[in-house]
Design brief:
Blueprint lengths: L6 H15 L1 E4 L4 E4 L2 H8 E3 L2 E2 L2 H9 L1 H10 L5 E13 L2 E18 L2 E10 L6 E7 L23
Antiparallel strand pairs: 1-2, 3-4, 5-6, 6-7, 7-8
């Protein structure tokens, strides 16, 4: 069992490192990938009000350097999924729900001896590509090529 007593320090160090990244160039997309607050928040929380288990968070904190490296060196992505999701946006000083396409890409590799998957996300047609999550030790789906438009296993919104 992992020692959770230094959780706050690990979280603070990970957050400082994450914020120092800003953005990195992705060869596979030939554009910058932002490491914004949403991505770090997603490492800590599974959904808006559900915190991930502490050992899972700590593992993800420790894998952040590999996630950055993978985004910087990968020339292919292995998974893709597109879905519609509702977002609350402000329109004329009122909050309204708006559906937008959300695209997810999974970049999978063994890097520095660790098997990881980094999920990148883009909201809307003109949205910016950003880091969404890092998934350690996932299972591979043998039949992932059955559906061309959905090749991800699991739920990219929560993973």
């Amino acid at each position: 069992m992992e020692d959770l007593s230094n959780y706050e320090k690990l979280k603070e160090d990970a957050n400082n490192y994450y914020n120092s990244i800003g953005k990195v160039r992705s060869p596979v997309f030939n554009e910058d990938v932002g490491f914004n607050a949403e991505g770090f928040n997603h490492i800590v929380y599974k959904t808006a009000r559900t915190e991930r288990e502490r050992p899972s968070q700590i593992l993800r904190f420790k894998l952040l350097r590999l996630a950055r490296k993978l985004v910087e060196v990968s020339t292919t992505y292995q998974e893709y999924e597109e879905t519609l999701k509702e977002f609350t946006v402000k329109r004329h000083k009122k909050k309204v729900n708006k559906s937008q396409p959300v695209k997810y890409w999974g970049i999978i590799a063994i890097i520095d001896g660790r098997k990881i998957k980094v999920i990148l996300r883009k909201i809307g047609e003109n949205g910016k590509l950003h880091f969404w999550s890092i998934v350690p030790a996932w299972t591979t789906n043998k039949y992932r090529d059955i559906k061309f438009y959905t090749t991800m296993k699991g739920n990219p919104e929560e993973d």
